[in-house]
Amino acid sequence: MPEFTVIIPAWNEAKYLPATLRALERQTYAPREVIVVDNLSRDDTPGIAQAWGATLLTCEKRGVAHARQMGLEHARTPWVATTDADSHPIPEWLGYYNAATPGRAALYGPMRFFGLREPYPLLTHVSYSAFLHVARLMGKPNLAGANMAYSRKAALLVGGYARVEAYEDVILGQALGEVGEVAYVPGALVETSARRLDKGVLQFAWRHVRNVTGHTRGYFDELRE
């Protein structure tokens, strides 16, 4: 059974990070290490990560791709799993990924929003799963940084994350598909914050479509000052 390092990039995530770390604490298949890569936060994100017992790294190059790459380079386990600082993997998350690793270079699973009234969490789960299915049928699996895992050796072989503002997770997933099998793991669910809808569903959908079609700028980093 391979060991996992979980990497979490974080920028001003003091509000959300504690719940994410608690979700990792409840994993039935425990990670060997949790790395929080702080991207120059102005709040108590670093202190929260250290108090919980995570390995804290400081990435001085702004941008999630740089933070994810730093985490990858510091990981020492055969497999790496990634999630976001405002996301909650279910307790069986790493267990599902562990069972699916043989013969694979990368894995990914479904997501849904939390913080919405019913039935919207279920609707987001169904719609996102349908989107992932269509992407698979098109031969373009859509791996998201909030819920993916990969062989560390394979990721380093393809050069890790592209240094772009957005879409770095999908680009890595596509590169990993060139050197090995990429598999969808339907049980490996992650719930993620609905704050992505703060500016409206249409704007969120438009930005997502732009990134999925290859645009690598202006996803969430435009929120930075």
TrEMBL record:
<protein>
    <submittedName>
        <fullName>Glycosyltransferase</fullName>
    </submittedName>
</protein>
<dbReference type="GO" id="GO:0005886">
    <property type="term" value="C:plasma membrane"/>
</dbReference>
<keyword id="KW-1003">Cell membrane</keyword>
<keyword id="KW-0472">Membrane</keyword>
<feature type="domain" description="Glycosyltransferase 2-like">
    <location>
        <begin position="5"/>
        <end position="152"/>
    </location>
</feature>
<keyword id="KW-0808">Transferase</keyword>
<dbReference type="Pfam" id="PF00535">
    <property type="entry name" value="Glycos_transf_2"/>
</dbReference>
<dbReference type="GO" id="GO:0016757">
    <property type="term" value="F:glycosyltransferase activity"/>
</dbReference>
<keyword id="KW-0328">Glycosyltransferase</keyword>
<dbReference type="InterPro" id="IPR001173">
    <property type="entry name" value="Glyco_trans_2-like"/>
</dbReference>
<dbReference type="InterPro" id="IPR029044">
    <property type="entry name" value="Nucleotide-diphossugar_trans"/>
</dbReference>
